[in-house]
Specification:
34% of the residues lie in helices and 26% in strands. The protein has 612 residues and is α/β, with parallel strands linked by helices. It has 3 domains: 2-104 and 184-260, P-loop containing nucleotide triphosphate hydrolases (Rossmann fold, 3-Layer(aba) Sandwich), CATH 3.40.50; 115-182, no CATH class; 313-591 and 603-611, P-loop containing nucleotide triphosphate hydrolases (Rossmann fold, 3-Layer(aba) Sandwich). The strands form 5 sheets. Strands 18-19-20-15-21-22-25-24 form an 8-stranded mixed beta sheet, sandwiched between helices. α4 packs across α5 (138-151), α7 (170-182) packs parallel to α8 (200-217) and α16 crosses α17. The longest helix is centred in the middle third of the chain and has 18 residues, at 200-217.
């Protein structure tokens, strides 16, 4: 224990690597300046990790961009002091600041493809980061790049030097970005939501990797996130930001166990915790944070739902494959086995969650059921329709019974169409009534999803991400569907917005007796909202059963792996290492002569099946 306390004392006593005092950042709005970050002060000691936590609009990313001086000059104004090793950064000339970036401070972002150039090999891009800041030959740069790729645990690093970004998975692209950031051995690494878009197992690998590299390289880390589970696992100290201000600062242990500010306590209470549903029969509402005051306005409570008789949706032996063609003659050389022999059913008023990592086939399953993707074989019975056999006209009619809500509502809403027109459009196109009737129903549905009727004239860009998702849900309900496929519908949302949308889905299920196929990789959310869970791996369901049975008694090794990777909001786990893995999810590409093995399932308990 004494060593740990000595290390903490050393961190506090040492001259800070970064010292930020009274940082205020304003943006030009017309002729006036609007402050979005106000009087923020903190420091980071050598080898220390400080997390800035808060939701979208709290000012955390603007704080990091202000430190790096990456904001547009004529539209922003940065005041206060930012010192790196005692050197003031805000008064440096542009050329001197350029040398600081990438050399003394490096930054990695949420989406690596915004930083990687798709037309250049990744080796060349990392080498450029070296040659810009060092006097180094091409051969030496290549050797150093391969060493860095090996350091971030990219397998077969030498052979992947000449590969392009699209040939890497999301997790591996993020490792490439970390390698690029480490190229010049920076004193400070700023990680801005580096794991938010990643699957839970890949997120765990990246968090472990950053911790291991920090120990090896001795760098300081400024970690920006809205995920309190991630904060607990990586940060020595934490800064909580709310509406542009640092409302609480302290050791991570103090913040989690003795947090004083109402917003800090609300943020912690709103985080879904794996295992919190133990012994409960029904899904539970999420606690809600009031965006104006930062306090909890809604407490968690069970949402009893009535699941009726025979299934509304029955899927038997569903298989979806995508042919691969190569050569001058375009001969078929193999196929992507995206969905392989999947079977399940879904009753009215029930939520079945499909969980797994990217590439496991869960989204393709949802799209195959709605025939947005054509299945290769199998049977789908939906509300009396034989979905596979439907012609174009009957398929259009069938889709009144099943609707989809996607991860990115902005991509599914026409930016040139008002939200009222967007919600009304399916009703009018299916000839279900007059424009007036469509407008009345659209107004009613927008109210039901928590929006005002006078918002119907606005356009999608005038709404927040959470509001756009509500609009997408209202649009999916206007045809009175029996089943909704929610494909990662809350994955990209902040804690409180995610809670609001999940609660809305639960309330609508109660009101309309809707059946949900809830596709997600967020195990803590899945545990909260689902009645049954199906775990997918490489296109197959490896475990399926009642939510309580699967979460409290997981049988398949992959199910246990998913659950073990979920970040837990407990600072006591900060020293835990899962063991940095270089594993990517295996490829579902198969040759023409591949024979699909016959799978056997054993019954663990009633309705709980696991692949043998």
């Amino acid at each position: 224990m004494s060593n740990a306390s000595d290390n903490k004392t050393d961190k506090v006593a040492a001259q800070p690597v970064l010292a930020v005092e009274n940082l205020t950042t304003s943006f030009r709005i017309g002729e006036s300046w609007m402050p979005v970050v106000r009087n923020v002060s903190f420091s980071i000691a050598p080898k220390e990790t400080v997390a800035i936590v808060g939701e979208s609009g709290s000012g955390k990313s603007v704080t990091s961009l202000s430190i790096m001086r990456l904001l547009q000059k004529n539209a922003s104004r940065i005041e206060g002091s930012v010192k790196l090793d005692g050197r003031e950064l805000l008064t440096l000339g542009d050329e001197a600041m350029r040398r600081v970036r990438g050399n003394d401070i490096a930054m990695i972002f949420q989406e690596p493809m915004t930083s990687l150039n798709p037309i250049f090999p990744i080796g060349k891009q990392i080498a450029e980061a070296l040659t810009c800041h060092q006097d180094i030959s091409k051969a030496d740069a290549k050797r150093e790049v391969i060493r860095l790729l090996e350091k971030v645990r990219i397998p077969n690093a030498a052979s992947r030097f000449d590969e392009y970004p699209h040939q890497f998975s999301g997790g591996m692209r993020q490792r490439v970005m970390i390698a690029m950031a480490l190229a010049s051995k920076p004193k400070l690494l700023i990680a801005d939501e580096p794991t938010t878009a990643l699957d839970v197992t890949i997120q765990g690998q990246i968090l472990d990797l950053i911790k291991v590299l920090q120990e090896e390289e001795g760098m300081s880390v400024l970690f920006i996130t809205h995920d309190m589970g991630v904060v607990a696992e990586v940060a020595d100290r934490t800064i909580v930001m709310f509406r542009g201000e640092a409302v609480e600062t302290g050791t991570t242990d103090d913040i989690f166990h003795r947090g004083k500010h109402p917003y800090t306590r609300a943020l912690l209470s709103a985080v879904p915790r794996l295992g919190s549903m133990q012994g409960r029969d029904f899904p539970m509402r999420f606690p809600i944070i009031d965006v104006a005051t930062g306090v909890l306005t809604t407490r968690a409570e069970e949402v009893p739902t009535e699941m009726r008789g025979r299934p509304i949706l029955e899927v038997k032996n569903l298989t979806t494959r995508f042919d691969i063609h190569a050569g001058l003659l375009g001969r078929k050389t193999g196929a992507v086995h995206a969905v392989e022999n999947v079977s399940f059913d879904l009753r009215e008023g029930e939520t079945l969650a499909l969980v797994g990592e990217s590439g496991c086939g869960k989204s393709t399953t949802g799209r195959s059921i709605t025939r947005l993707v054509e299945p290769t074989s199998g049977n789908i019975a939906l509300d009396g329709y034989n979905v596979i056999a439907l012609d174009r006209s009957a398929l259009r009619k069938m889709r009144r019974s099943i609707q989809m809500v996607f991860q990115d509502p902005f991509a599914s809403l026409d930016p040139r169409m008002s939200v009222g027109a967007a919600v009304m459009e399916p009703f009018i196109e299916h000839g279900l009534g007059t424009k007036r009737q469509a407008a009345e129903k659209a107004a009613d549905l927008l109210q039901r999803v928590g929006l005002k009727t006078d918002m119907m004239r606005r356009f999608p860009h005038e709404f927040s991400g959470g509001q756009r998702q509500r609009i997408a849900i209202a649009r999916s309900l206007i045809l009175d569907p029996k089943v909704i496929v929610a494909d990662e519908a809350v994955s990209a949302l902040d804690v409180s917005i995610k809670a609001q949308v999940c609660n809305l889905l639960l309330e609508l299920q109660q009101s309309f007796n809707l059946a949900y196929l809830f596709i997600s990789h967020d195990m803590a959310v899945v545990e909260r909202v689902s009645h049954r869970v199906a775990v997918m791996y490489l296109g197959e369901i490896v475990e399926i059963g009642p939510r309580q049975a699967v979460f409290e008694n997981p049988q398949h090794a992959y199910t246990r792996k998913l659950m073990a990777a979920v970040p837990v909001p407990d600072p006591g786990r900060r020293s835990i290492r899962r063991g940095v893995s270089t594993d990517e999810i295996k490829s579902p590409v198969r040759s023409n002569d591949y024979v699909v093995p016959e799978r056997q399932y054993r019954t663990v308990s009633e309705g709980h099946l696991v692949q043998m």
